[in-house]
């Protein structure tokens, strides 16, 4: 099977790696050549880790790496593809433009999946006219090679057969698949987690507990590997505010960012990447006590 992955960033390179580890030929496409170089290096590092931990032999890892190619030519990437997964930036116009080009070059029977975290599948597919029924949401989690879940999302016009094919593809690359049967912004996971983190932010702003104690409570009380606030710092406060603002538009006031969150963004307290967020960080990115 040939899998084309569009956008070779954090998610794209992981999805391409999953495909080759499942025995497929994968081609990663990106508009930026340096991103392809970085993706190649990241996949190499990750495969080496699999070998060190004994989960893969060196021969298997070498064969995986040999099945992965890179290109800046979209037509070449999707020609003859059985599956096309798009992991380009979370910008509606950009994704629509990309998909319009894809359907000109990809085989008519190729499975078309978008890895959007929360954009409406229906609105991305709206750019595809008669091909709108082919697009389905195939939402992997970060990092794709480690996380066990894939969320499949049906757009309003998605052909149910494509939902079944997306499920089969997720299982083929070793994931447990859940289906979001209605195209609802935030799907199941992003929607539930966004509101959980927002409640943690509200508790912090009300002085109910410290950031450390809120994160510790959620980690030890519910077996979360990371607390919602520390994970927020890792992903970026600006990214989070952008995401919940989109969910507020779709689902109403309960997703409205707090004044404190907006102030953090205005002040450049964006989390780990800016040296301060819910926590403070030193130059090496370690959290200050
Ligand atoms: N990062 C996460 O935790 C995460 C988790 C699940 C889903 N997602 C979703 O996956 C998608 C990609 O996210 P990411 O974190 O990998 O982003 P990223 O910024 O790491 O990577 C995006 C890549 O797309 C490339 N790109 C830009 N314009 C392009 C175009 N027109 N055609 C093809 N490639 C283009 C960029 O050069 C970059 O390499 C987004 O829709 C995001 O919402 C992200």
From TrEMBL:
Keyword Transmembrane helix tagged: no
Domain 3-hydroxyacyl-CoA dehydrogenase C-terminal: 186-281
Name of the protein this chain belongs to: Unannotated protein
GO molecular function, one term: NAD+ binding
GO BP of this protein: fatty acid metabolic process
All copies of domain 3-hydroxyacyl-CoA dehydrogenase NAD binding, residue ranges: 2-183
InterPro entries: 3-OHacyl-CoA_DH, 3-OHacyl-CoA_DH_NAD-bd, 3HC_DH_C, 6-PGluconate_DH-like_C_sf, 6PGD_dom2, NAD(P)-bd_dom_sf
Keywords: Oxidoreductase
Gene3D superfamilies with a match to the protein in the record: N-(1-d-carboxylethyl)-l-norvaline Dehydrogenase, domain 2 (1.10.1040.10), NAD(P)-binding Rossmann-like Domain (3.40.50.720)
Organism: freshwater metagenome
